């Protein structure tokens, strides 16, 4: 349902709002004690990364969608292919990446692309970096009959994992969501996918739909379990301004579940999937038989990723300017403008922003806590200049309260949300971010004083 690009945009918006809140916690004494050691963060650079490729086109816009997707009766496939190949080559060269661990084709609806386009992108990746023969290569696909008929061609092009946007097995809800497939299409796509990609088919389901009850959701989950493979992603429906569904709810044409029912729906799904042998490894992702997505895990662990295509996001260290600084990149949104930029200068990057220490700490915290493995102290110290998780969060009254309530676990090796904590993570994150921001501010003040004294 949501690509990582879209989730990162939502996380960025939340960070902006949280940073407007002032904090009063102080780390001055702790910083002074640590002043003899370097407080500069290690860039934690590596020669490997994952690649995300964005195909922006869709047949229609779903009623809940407000992201970078375009409805077009005509797509210049040859031009799109040339530009995707060119930008992939350019960004790989700028990053200096030697190995690509996984590739994810998202959208939009990338299953509307020609298989030879995907093959061309994979070929250019292999020309500029090592792409292991067993690397995870995922395609997002809608379960419409037209796209299901192309799955064999996509496999021949190099795809070895499928992510199907099922969203619901309820015919009325498919209509409410504006989907262009039927339940029968979904069942056929799952069956064909499991035949071609055994053990490597994921399905997306949305909960919190208008009028949804826990009882109906339980029945739907059982239906999903009767046909699914070994990976399921669950996403809570969010109402976004500007969407058809948002207007329908505002006009009282539709009614979505209240927060308590939303929590019950999520709890029902977690319990049902666990009973079927699925283990939760991230807020929205469940797998069994070792079917976790290595591509998704790279994101949550803060690894470098290169985003190709209109509106794609990247986080990697550019080495072309003589400096090695991890930065965020956002590509031009509109496909025609993006293609023009790629044809002129080899890439469609619209914005480049160097990530500060605080940026990296906040991002690592927010992503790491979404997983059941949590945030490791080793990773945190690399970014914090040597300060441990205990140093920063051990004295936080808010964190202590979360630990006592059984929502967080803090040790010398890890900070993680418990099973109960994952369900209410949105209420935990703000306090942790404020603590992180105060630590960063204190660190900057200490460094400024040190510069004055030595100047």
From TrEMBL:
The entry sums up its family as follows:
Belongs to the anaerobic coproporphyrinogen-III oxidase family. HemW subfamily.
Domain named Radical SAM core: residues: 43-279
Annotated GO CC locations: mitochondrion
Q: Which GO terms describe its molecular function?
A: 4 iron, 4 sulfur cluster binding; coproporphyrinogen oxidase activity; metal ion binding
Q: What is this protein's record name?
A: Radical S-adenosyl methionine domain-containing protein 1, mitochondrial
Question: Which UniProt keyword terms apply here?
Answer: Chaperone, Heme, Iron, Iron-sulfur, Metal-binding, S-adenosyl-L-methionine
Q: Which PANTHER family match?
A: COPROPORPHYRINIGEN III OXIDASE, RADICAL S-ADENOSYL METHIONINE DOMAIN-CONTAINING PROTEIN 1, MITOCHONDRIAL
InterPro entries (alphabetical): Aldolase_TIM, Coproporphyrinogen-III_oxidase, Elp3/MiaA/NifB-like_rSAM, HemN_C, HemW-like, rSAM, rSAM_sf
Functional note: May be a heme chaperone, appears to bind heme. Homologous bacterial proteins do not have oxygen-independent coproporphyrinogen-III oxidase activity. Binds 1 [4Fe-4S] cluster. The cluster is coordinated with 3 cysteines and an exchangeable S-adenosyl-L-methionine.
Q: Which GO terms describe its biological process?
A: porphyrin-containing compound biosynthetic process
